Amino acid sequence: MKLCVLGAGAIGGYIAARLTLSGAQVCAIARGAHLHAIKRHGVVLRSEGQELTARVAASDSPDDFGIQDVVICALKAHQSFQSAELFAPLLGEHTAVVTAMNGVPWWYFYKSGLPYDGRHLDSVDPGGRQWSLIGPERAIGCVVEPACEVVAPGVIEHHGFSRFILGEPAGSQSDRLTKLIRVLTHAGLEISYRDNIRWNIWLKLLGNVCLNPLSLLTCATVDRLVAQGSSLRSVCELMMCEAWEVAKALRIEIPEDMLKRRLDAVSAISGHKMSMLQDLEHGRELEIDAIVTAVQELGRLAGKETPTIDWVSALAQERGYQAGLYRSLTPCTTS
Fold first, then answer.
1. Would 170 be classed as within a structural domain?
2. How many CB atoms lie within 10 A of CB 257?
3. Can you tell me the distance from the alpha carbon of 203 to that of 205, in angstroms, rounded to the nearest whole number?
4. Comparing C-alpha atoms, which of 233, 206, 212 is closest to residue 306?
5. CA 21, 25, 27 angle in degrees (round to 5)?
């Protein structure tokens, strides 16, 4: 099986390194200083007290590698939209594309079983650019759980967790997914299959929709955001409840008591910074649309109001604009 990791940053580099070390036939698309370091020294992976070096074949041009069996897209959602044409040299008739990204994926309404089937989400895929250039029939959903960080060009620290949750948009366990799970598992990754991957996407999103933009606005670590009795926790609870109502309207049934349990679980993580705050501190473009704006869009579609999310989203977007780290894919996407 030929695999290409498109976007060899923290998560993509971690995946590419693990695959390479397991003997898989893998290449990676990267850029800038990170690419130069990988070409010179490979990917240095620090994980579980070990430092390993993986000599990953890497380039900034997909033309160098040609058609793949599987493309693992580890770009952020807005980067995937902006780079949709880069997929073309990697795509053959049967190439699968794993969307290893946070937030609501661009293929969400492909074979969803909802009245909105075939609809493009303006917040993540305005004009259906990815839908047409990549193709929803190629998509395999993925929820990413590992905590990784690029600490220097070509150097990735894996802080914990190794599980990736995979699922076909239509819910079936296909031959291509079975083969991919076998390869990823052989590489030492913990892989779980779900027949309703949208449920797991929403479960992670319920935390991200509040914790990420609030961390951006307050610069607070996650334990401070969810401290018992704090005003910030109250805002988190309001935002989670609004998102939960949207999910329920889209036939995603997540037990209500899981909301409190998720906040309680992250309260024990002392000093951890959410990804949006990390991006702000490192001057990286902010991933607001797929995590927050998409929930607003889905809420309007399903007839559910999201007043708290709307206010926080407006503030987060303005913070991003002021820092020069955010540009909406579609102007005026918020109500």
1. yes
2. 8
3. 5
4. 206
5. 90
One domain for residues 23 and 169: yes
Which position among 2, 179, 204, 248 bears the catalytic label?
A: 204
Burial 259-291 (b: 16+ CB within 10 A, else e): beebbeebbeeeebebbbbebbeeeebbbbbbb
Q: What's the pTM value of the predicted model, to 2 decimals?
A: 0.95
Q: What is the pLDDT of residues 253-310, one digit of tens each?
A: 999 999 999 999 888 778 888 999 989 999 999 999 999 999 999 999 999 999 999 9
Query: What pLDDT is stored for residue 332 in this prediction?
Result: 45
Cβ–Cβ under 8 Å, residues 245 and 252: no
Is residue 201 within 8 A of residue 179, CB to CB? The reply is no
Euclidean distance between CA atoms 308 and 329, whole angstroms: 22
- Helix, strand or coil for residue 282? helix
204 in active site: yes
CA gap 105, 207 in Å, rounded: 16
CATH of the domain at 76: 3.40.50.720
Among residues 195, 223, 251, the one where a domain terminates is 195
Range of the domain at 225: 198-323
Q: What phi and psi, each to the nearest 5 degrees, are found at residue 248? A: -65, -40
CATH number at residue 264: 1.10.1040.10
Instruction: For residues 249 and 174, state if they share a domain.
Output: no
What is the C-alpha separation between 141 and 174, in angstroms, rounded?
A: 13
- Is the Cβ–Cβ distance between 242 and 309 less than 8 Å? yes
Three-state DSSP at 285 gives: coil
Could you report the per-residue pLDDT of 220-241, keeping only the tens digit for each? 999 999 998 889 999 999 999 9
